[in-house]
Amino acid sequence: MVLSRSADGWTAGTPLEVLTDNRDALLAVGMNGEPLPLEHGFPVRLVVPGLYGYVSATKWVTELKVTRFADDVGYWTPRGWSERGPIKTSSRIDVPRDGRSVPAGTVAFGGVAWAQHTGIGRVELRVNRGPWQQAELAPGISTDTWYQWKLELPLTRGQYEVQVRATDLNGAAQVEDSAPVVPSGATGFHTVRVDVKS
């Protein structure tokens, strides 16, 4: 791994293989044509697509050390987090928000999905655990960015549970079983409850 250290002493252990594959990992020294702002990690910040920030996004980098996971640990690893931190395929519903009331008729749902370093192939919604319905997916800027999606559903008066799931470009669907953020990233289908008024 590469152990990166920041000016404040924070460390992250990043797998060496993700720094040498084709995912465009970088040491950022600028942003939008200007020197990197202090709040974003000036003078240099590590950026590695496809990994959670606790193993890939060291700000204010002062040292990079090639080592082994058996010999060194990043800040979060001894605190119960996984060593490698690959981001899991996931999706969320941004509108309407959970618990909101909406008028009956056509209800527009929208949100984002991500499968970093792979890309999103499909996003689907289901209402009250019924059949999955495919959403319209906006083109991604790259396989490492979030993809926006939308789906309009005709809903009459009542209460509805709406869930979303994403499938990556390799055909692997996001994990349905719920798991907490620690140790290696949350899983499960994002769910909102919507009250449709007549």
Topology-level CATH name of the largest domain: Immunoglobulin-like
Q: In terms of per-residue confidence, which ranges show pLDDT below 50 for 5 or more consecutive residues? A: none
Mean residue pLDDT: 95
Distance between the termini: 58 Å
The counted number of beta strands is 16
Helix-strand pattern: EEHEEEEEEEEEEEEEE
Counted up, domains total 2
Question: Percent helix among the residues?
Answer: under 10%
Give the biggest sheet.
5 strands, mixed
Count of alpha/pi helices: 1
Computed structural class: mainly beta
**CATH A-level architecture of the largest domain:** Sandwich
Top CATH class of the largest domain:
Mainly Beta
Strand order of the largest sheet: 9-16-15-11-12
What's the alpha carbon Rg, rounded to whole Å?
20 Å
Q: Report the portion of residues in β strands.
A: 35-45%
The backbone outline, from C-alpha atoms, is elongated
Any chance you could write out the topology, listing elements then pairs?
Layout: E1 2-6, E2 11-14, H1 16-20, E3 26-28, E4 30-31, E5 34-35, E6 45-47, E7 61-66, E8 90-95, E9 101-103, E10 105-114, E11 120-127, E12 133-134, E13 136-137, E14 147-155, E15 158-168, E16 190-197
Parallel strand pairs: 9-16
Antiparallel strand pairs: 1-2, 1-7, 3-6, 4-5, 8-10, 10-14, 11-12, 11-15, 13-14, 15-16
